[in-house]
Amino acid sequence: MGPGQAKANGIALEARDLRKVYHRGSEDIVAVDGVSLTILRGEFISFVGPSGSGKTTLINLLGCLDNATSGSLKIGGRTVFDGRKSLSEGELTKIRRQVFGYIFQKFYLVPTLTVIENVLLPYAFYKKAEAPADPMDILRFLGLDNRASHRPSELSGGEMQRVAIARALINKPEILLADEPTGNLDTKRSEEIGGVLRRLNESEGLTVLLVTHNPSLARIARRTVVLRDGKIAD
Amino acid sequence: MGTGSKFSGMWHLPFSLRELMMKISVYQVAYKNLLRKKTRTALTILGIGLSAWVLTSLFGFNRGYESALNKDIDNMGFQVLLTAKGCPYEAATLMLKGGTGLRYMSESVFADILKNEEVEQITPMLMQAVFDPNKGESGGISAYLGIDPATFPAMKSFLEFRQGGWFRDPESREAVMGYEAAELEQREVGDAILIPEMNLEFTVVGVLARSGTQDDGTIFVPIRTLQRDFGQEGNVTAVGIKVKKEANIALLENKLYDLPDVQVVSMAQVKTTIMSLVSTAKVMVFSIALIAILIAMLGVINTILMSVFERFQEIGIIKSMGAMPWDVFRMIWTETVILCLLGGGLGIAVSFGLAKATDLLIRRLLPYTPTGSLVAIDGRLALTTLGLILVIGLLSGIYPAWRAARVRPLESIRSEGD
Ligand SMILES: Nc1ncnc2c1ncn2[C@@H]1O[C@H](COP(=O)(O)OP(=O)(O)OP(=O)(O)O)[C@@H](O)[C@H]1O
Ligand SMILES: [Mg+2]
Questions:
Q1: Residue A34 is part of which domain span?
Q2: Average pLDDT for residues B96-110, to the nearest whole number?
Q3: pLDDT at position B146
Q4: Residue A142 lies in a domain
Q5: How far apart are the first and last CA of chain B?
């Protein structure tokens, strides 16, 4: 099953003319400048571009972590943002926990909780009703099953990021957003994480949106979106 | 903490149990957060504990003091005391004055007292102070209280004997010694006591157990004997009046005020006077408690707020996981509540443990203290205090929890660069 075929199950995410303008004093910074993008279910897309080109801003808009200034956004056929109307924090939260899993450059593991507790942490706030994931399956998949009762401080950076991935997967997200997930890791660990993301995409059909500076990591993706000054460059 | 092998062992547990262990609650997360900065948490708990201790002891004192005072006054056996005008009743005053200045009233007053329907019984007393050159190094004053064996023991039924019992014969040369008087003069039942000045000898027939009242320092002898020996036939220094249970004491007191040359000492008034003295002390102590509470509260707010600021990014991530503002609020609030309950529990345990010491401390601070236990701490009081501490905790937690609930996930990601 090739993710590029998208299994005829349609569109995961559709952005039309998204813009994000920051006001800094009297200056307007257009971080994302009219991006239109359609992402199919099961796709693996990487976002690359120079620093300040708007990668993080765009992925945050797509992941409902932030409101766009204008444009529209549909997720799974549902319009979550249209025109100027901004979503409330509560509404954003509901979409986020239903659809997305996030990983970042920093891992943000809770130091006093064990690996398994960190992975289960989202359940303290929300548990998807349909088909909950078995946390041990996830840990096994990520090669962490013998680390379940360790503390984060006992893990390597790569292992910590894998715990963060496991935590992002516990509620079976449709889309995984990863903003420079290997920014804090060396080459070997970066490849490890890249491999994990690819396996998740290929064997689980997870849609992956990856922001990275690392060209070899970006190459894992079937599609690469290059950003320049907030616009998609081709 | 075990390792992975322990975890895989768990894998064979029945499904429901496994399910149970596969959960983590907001409360668990909150509890574990507190373990991050153990010293800070411990100090905060200690602070709360301290104020809980002060609070419990104060509440306990508030209740205990009044009931102890009531008991003391009930233990006097009579509710109203009639003395001759200007007559010092207190043994201490008597000793200061060196036994001079005693005034007497005539037994003829009895009939006037008994006329009042409120009166159940009366008991006459005659106080005599005697200089005893053998007492102490340079001599001292001994207080003899002549009492009526027919009425006095019945009124003071709570008095307990260490040795012997009351004299029966109203005319005998027998004596009952208060605990301290007996200690001081080294007397036991069967020994003799002398009044050298008058060349009189009494035989000790009873020694009282310690009561904590002025009875401890008194030597009781039959009133008839004392009257005869000191040439005070027909005179008494005081009359104790026992009032009927349902009777209106104030009304009786008013009628007694009209009697000539007597002074009415109302135990209810004595109590009011003491309580007003104590209430001044109470106001001071309660202000201290209030300050203690405020300090503990600030400590809690500071601790929780600091931990919220330290965890800004983490809270943001928790929100990106799908936590609603209320979830985060609840989590931080739970941390405050845990701190307060632990501190409160500690403080209450300490106040139970140190109730005796607190009692002693208060005794040193107050002008007059009754005999019974001053600090009455029980389960209900402990629960009330714990409830109060909990309310304080919930109040202190509001601001930090609100700050945490407001954190947006983006904030944590933005500050990623630094
Ligand atoms: N909160 C903000 N307020 C003002 N300007 C912002 C804010 N966030 C981002 N910007 C600006 O928007 C532009 C795009 O930033 P963004 O973080 O999306 O870039 P990026 O491609 O992710 O860069 P990098 O590769 O360094 O992470 C930049 O010029 C940045 O300064
Ligand atoms: Mg970025």
A1: 11-232
A2: 71
A3: 93
A4: yes
A5: 33
